[in-house]
Write a structure and sequence with these properties.
Order of helices and strands: HHHHHEEHH
Radius of gyration: 40 Å
Strand order of the largest sheet: 1-2
Strand content: under 5%
Structural class: mainly alpha
Helix content: over 70%
Number of domains: 2
Largest sheet: 2 strands, antiparallel
Number of strands: 2
Amino acid sequence: MNPIEEKLWNYIDGTCSPTEQATITLLIEQDEAYRAKYQELLQLNQEFATMELDEPSMGFTYKVMETIRTENARQPLKAAINPRIIWGISIFFAISIIALLVFTIANIHVTLSAVDVKINLPAGFRLPKMGNISSSQVFKWFLVFDVVLALFLADSYLRRKKTAKQL
């Protein structure tokens, strides 16, 4: 598009500034090339205004949406999870459980009538006081989170089992 056409289209569309509009009006009145091009573009603009816009049929829209839906269905919904991360988390929890079991067993004092068994920790080893931890809000919310997570995992396991039976 040359600069004359661009200026005239801006003038026809009404997107030019008032000073440009006054300048283009003078050019249309005085210059024959501008006047001829203005008349041509004005007729073209009127033809565009009378044209009816084409719309795709409902069947076409439905087919396109179905194609998009099937393409998205083909892609796996699972995100790629690094197995090392899962192993790391599992090892952390296994070590934590083993440490709690050792701690519990180390603090057991069993007294039988025939045998007196007493298990003590080494002299330099001090255990943290656990009384404040179990009464804090953070610990309570942690337990709530663990219960919800356990329910979620049990639900997904049972659903997976149910879908495997249906197939």
